[in-house]
Amino acid sequence: MEHNVLASILANSCDTACCGMWFYLIVTILKLVLVFAVILAFVVLSVWIERRVAGWIQDRPGPNRAGIPLHLFQRFGSKEEQPCKKLLHFFGVPENCWIAKLFRWLRLDREIPTFGLMQPCLDGAKLFLKQELTPSYVRKVYFTLAPMLVLGPPLVAAAVIPFASGFSTPFGDVNMCVANLGIGPLWIFAISGLSVYGLTLAGWSSNSKYPFLGGLRATAQLISYEVAMGLSIIPLLMMFGTLNLQNIVQYQADNGWTILPLWGEGLTWERWFMMLPMLISFVVFVTCVFAEANRTPFDMAECETDLVGGYHSEYSSMKFASFFMGEYAAMVIGSALVVTLFLGGWSIGFGADAALHAWCDWFAVICQFAMFLIKLVAFIFFFVWVRWTLPRFRWDQVMKLGWLVFLEVTVANIFLTAAIIYFIN
Amino acid sequence: MSYIPVKRPKFSILDKIYVVELVKGLAITFKHLALSLMGKSRSKKDFNGKGVGACMPFPEQRWDAHMPEYYRGAPTLVRGEDGRERCVSCQLCEFICPARAIKITPGAVDPNSSCQKQEKAPAEFEIDMLRCIYCGMCQEACPEQAIFLSKEYLITPTDRKDAIRNKETLYKLGGTRKGLVNKWNQHK
Known about the structure:
The complex is a heterodimer of chains A (about 425) and B (about 190).
Chain A: H1 2-11, H2 14-57, E1 68-69, H3 83-90, H4 98-105, E2 111-112, H5 119-129, H6 140-157, E3 167-169, E4 172-174, H7 184-205, H8 209-232, H9 234-240, H10 245-255, H11 269-292, H12 304-307, H13 317-342, H14 352-359, H15 361-387, H16 395-424
Antiparallel strand pairs in A: 1-2, 3-4
Chain B: H1 13-17, H2 19-38, H3 44-47, E1 75-77, H4 92-96, E2 102-107, E3 121-128, H5 137-141, E4 147-149, H6 160-163, E5 164-165, H7 167-174
Antiparallel strand pairs in B: 1-4, 2-3, 3-5
């Protein structure tokens, strides 16, 4: 691809070539920053979602205390003890008025409401300030390397996920995907498969029994589910006929999402027929994403009932936090992949994409980006929801499910899809 | 040997496929989520909570009014109805205290006291609140019914010395109690 860019630069006159290259560079850097920021923000956000939703499901509020107390502003010259209360009093709003009630509900009489969103930041600060304890018996090099290997791959894998369609500017077209590779899902599988090295190294270098078992489990589990995961998207690829994620999402925007084909060229019975293998793929793929991201009910690698803390038992402070963040980043990337492959990625659906593009490119891209984020949040919520619903599977059940059920189901699914495509066309 | 053989439940095919059961479970948790967000959690009334879920946002809202009669809080010393120190410094509570929180220094009986029959009175009576486990053994052991567990539960000393309560503080917290012990009464 870069050869093409270079060739085109050489072929064109110097002026436009330089302009095109600079445009390409700047746009790529901007997209990189955007993706990086979105992924890290979502890591933080998903911690918050996890804790809040866990609270609500268990009939408690969850972390809602971390806010910005208003009395702190007294230090910066504000003479009011409770500015909002004083404000209400100044305008003569009675105590039982709905405005005052709303203020109280938002806890504005005490602090600036953040709904506990400050909690992940404070957790991070706490982890930074905690004592960093490296046991004397560990292999220091691998011990330090492991957390980096866990956190890195998900951030790299995000490069191929399209977060909006493209738009054109006077300088050239912009594709809202950092690297528009022709091997999208394969890239993600390859890179996220690398994060198992982090877990294994962490378990191994800790030089301690339980982390070691955790590392082994992580390896076995990731390898088993990688197989089913790869096979489960083959029916999709047969239908789309492409591995480019941007094209896949474009196809879904035009013809209906993979598991919701309600618009496009009409609701033919063939498309409803295709739903069956797609749904099987969806269930298998989502389960595999759970297993890949090491989430309950598949968090065998850090199953605290039998492995203390799993592969990160010996870690503390920021090293532990980077395992934590890596896990959540893997979850975000997994959700993004499910959304892209099955739930239409950035497409707003019901033919709205084409209409918006016809009206205004910029607005369409912003809407699609927002839509992508909404879907991502919804799927992360689903992740959390499942976590607080299902108990953890037993280790042999996990392996049985991977090798004896999913492998067979996915292979059969490929043949089913092939048969449907053969007989329909 | 008596034992009850428990039969494992037979799973139907539907159970084994797991997807339907999974959806049922998800529905249950989602119901809890929705109810607690709407502030209609099932046990909300029992807990008298005003926050999200069944919880009571603690410092703003307190359990105090619902505290049961048998609640075991901080131990305190009490005076009799005539203002007499009930403690006779027998040190039974000190001996029985499993956490060794109590330390009594026995002394002579105050000549102004209304009762001169007892042999000793506590010159100093200290309870280390960092050691106390609120078990109530002292209250049980006391033959004079001089030490009682109060309902006080907010014990937040700022340093270790603050945590040790002396005789004066304990009497202040305990107040006076009527009845029960009258073996020292003159009329008997």
